[in-house]
Amino acid sequence: xxxxxxxxxxxxxxxxxxxxxxxxxxxxxxxxxxxxxxxxxxxxxxxxxxxxxxxxxxxxxxxxxxxxxxxxxxxxxxxxxxxxxxxxxxxxxxxxxxxxxxxxxxxxxxxxxxxxxxxxxxxxxxxxxxxxxxxxxxxxxxxxxxxxxxxxxxxxxxxxxxxxxxxxxxxxxxxxxxxxxxxxxxxxxxxxxxxxxxxxxxxxxxxxxxxxxxxxxxxxxxxxxxxxxxxxxxxxxxxxxxxxxxxxxxxxxxxxxxxxxxxxxxxxxxxxxxxxx
Length: 277
Description:
This protein has ten helices and eleven strands. It has 277 residues and is α+β, with helices and mostly antiparallel strands. An eight-stranded antiparallel beta sheet has the order 2-1-3-9-6-11-5-4. Strands 8-7-10 form a three-stranded antiparallel beta sheet, with no helix packed on it. The longest helix is centred in the N-terminal third of the chain and has 21 residues.
């Protein structure tokens, strides 16, 4: 069985799913990997229903934030908006062999579950998207540079509906910004963070696709259509990252034991236990 992967400016190549070393080389070179039609409609049907229910509940409880500027929500596996059956389905999907085979192929170290997010269009149709690196919201410039050499945090994005996708700057998971990129990303020297970048590449997404990309790389969401993407974040098992993992977002031991591939959740639990000692 083959998967189509987008990894550079020249388009796509075919890679055998069993050839993990090829898959990780493609990811390491560009910082992202697009697997076309990785999931079937039947595999996504119940997930879509659950996440749409979650989204409605979240919007009701966060009406002001949603109307003001929100473009994503987080901590979907907590019990705040979903019942135990719905949470169980999310854990089953995350801990499935279908997803974790890819996660295990990409990550060099033991994959550790970190968080979930849901990305959607802003309520304000005039709101612009923005280039960013995820760490810029809690790290200084020097710390952001150091993060390029540090542990991995990786998005595994599953579009629930066809959408414009994501803008990415290939290679920036390992290199620092050019002058243009830094000025646009941080809005220096009169630039705006929604401006086009000469180094940017747009990746459109269809239902069934799986987009893998580094949280460290420069990227932005592309608004429009019925944008609704489910992101699962995995990280390296580093103590500093455990602070960003909420206890209420983790499955019970019984659920962990029922999963096809429970190790990413076990890694998270073990990491948090070590941090509490």
